């Protein structure tokens, strides 16, 4: 019960933080198919449900977002760094690293975010955390408007995690990145692939609409 209350508190603080970012115009909250910062936070929630973290770590993370929501980045980062330091290679520490990367991305500190996320891909445990880091790498490139690297990262994600809950959205974004780089034929091919792999889904409906627009 205690951990459930803490999880709800963390989610509430995360929601407050996201709303503040949207209203402040500090980041594009949605990309082409709602694959962006908000969805990445959802990925963090799924991770926390599957791997219960230490209560002390939960309190630190909740407190960190309280400070971030108040604009106190110094104290927020201090608590996140404490979690990483005190829990080392535990799931809690890797979850804190994901959060830190998210905040750095919002702050346009892309190189720092990518450094953290790359290390998670190499050493993160358990394995469930790695696709969450991989999806964030795509978002960092998207935020930089570095669509060529976003294409590469998207294809790597799709190849490694074909059954992940983010894969459908990443397919759609991959197609949009192709459009932005002038490769409409490749985009059409990806949209068609979505129709085959994700029939009767929102992703398939979106892909069909975009295919019609490309004609």
Question: Could you give a short description of this structure?
Answer:
The chain is mostly helical and 215 residues long.
Structural class: mainly alpha
Q: If helices are DSSP runs of H or I spanning 4 or more residues, what is the number of helices?
A: 11
The overall number of domains is 2
Give the overall form: elongated
- Biggest β-sheet, characterized? none
Helicity level, as a percent range? over 70%
N-to-C CA distance: 54 Å
Q: What percent strand? A: under 5%
Mean pLDDT comes to 76
Give the tally of β-strands: 0
Rg (CA only): 18 Å
Low-confidence stretches: 1-51
Note the run of SSEs as H and E.
HHHHHHHHHHH
What's the structural blueprint in terms of helices and strands?
Layout: H1 2-23, H2 37-50, H3 55-69, H4 73-87, H5 91-106, H6 110-123, H7 129-143, H8 147-160, H9 167-180, H10 184-197, H11 202-214
Helix pairs in contact: 1-2, 1-3, 2-5, 2-7, 3-4, 4-5, 5-6, 5-7, 6-7, 7-8, 8-9, 9-10, 10-11
């Amino acid at each position: 019960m205690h951990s459930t209350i803490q999880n709800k508190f963390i989610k509430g603080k995360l929601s407050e933080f996201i709303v503040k970012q949207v209203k402040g115009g500090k980041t594009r909250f949605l990309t082409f198919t709602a694959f962006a910062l908000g969805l990445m936070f959802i990925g963090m929630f799924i991770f926390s449900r599957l791997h219960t973290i230490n209560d002390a770590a939960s309190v630190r993370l909740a407190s960190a977002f309280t400070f971030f929501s108040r604009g106190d980045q110094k104290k927020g980062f201090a608590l996140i760094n404490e979690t990483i330091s005190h829990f080392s290679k535990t799931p809690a520490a890797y979850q804190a690293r994901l959060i830190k990367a998210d905040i750095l991305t919002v702050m346009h500190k892309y190189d720092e975010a990518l450094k953290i996320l790359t290390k998670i891909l190499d050493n993160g445990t358990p394995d469930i955390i790695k696709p969450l880091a991989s999806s964030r790498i795509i978002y960092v490139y998207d935020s930089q408007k570095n669509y060529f690297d976003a294409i590469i990262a998207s294809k790597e994600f799709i190849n490694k995690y074909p059954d992940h809950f983010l894969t459908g959205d990443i397919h759609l974004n991959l197609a949009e990145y192709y459009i932005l780089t002038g490769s409409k034929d490749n985009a059409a091919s990806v949209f068609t692939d979505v129709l085959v792999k994700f029939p009767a889904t929102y992703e398939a409906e979106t892909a069909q609409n975009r295919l019609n627009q490309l004609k």
